[in-house]
Amino acid sequence: MKRARAGGRHLNRLSWLVGLLALLLVAFLSTTAWFLYPPRDVPPRSDVVLVLAGASDGRHEYGARLVDEGVAGILVISNWKGVEDEVGWEHCRGSARPADADSLCMKPSPVTTVGEAQTFAQLAQEQGWESVVVVTNRPHTRRVRSVFEQCSEVPATVVFHGWVDKLRIPYHVARELGGYLKFWITDPC
Q1: Rounded to whole angstroms, what are the CA distances from 83 to 50, 91, 94, 128?
Q2: Domain residue limits, the chain
Q3: Most exposed residue of 53, 57, 116, 174, measured as fewest CB within 10 angstroms of its CB?
Q4: Rounded to two decimals, what is the model's pTM?
């Protein structure tokens, strides 16, 4: 009889563990999908295109292409590393700048997404800009929207470069979750 009860308890614990693992898997997959499939906005005509700092993953080229297509007449590159960020530097000061547009480098302070939003808001106020298209990577899109809504009065449309390195998906998800938690906890704006 004791053996039957022990077997039943073992089965209950196993069922509970399998249920918990299934719940965690569903939560991970849902969160991953939420970050990897944000709404895709069509970039409207704006005063400026802002490319956020980050990997050389095609975002700089996409931002320059938007300017070349007439979305805006100004390209701003968030570039806190200066010439050390070769791709960013080439787009704001070098040969990769759009031909018929102004371009400039922006050094955010602090060097975070919040710092980029706040630094851009100050720059926009100084320049009289009233709208911006912000370019980032796909997993970062939702957090950028939240940050710009909270930390800048400039209406922002956030667009993303289309691909994600599949091997880096867990990194992106963890980074965005951590970024959201930090943003909600610290309320930096």
Answers
A1: 18, 11, 10, 28
A2: 1-37, 48-186
A3: 174
A4: 0.84
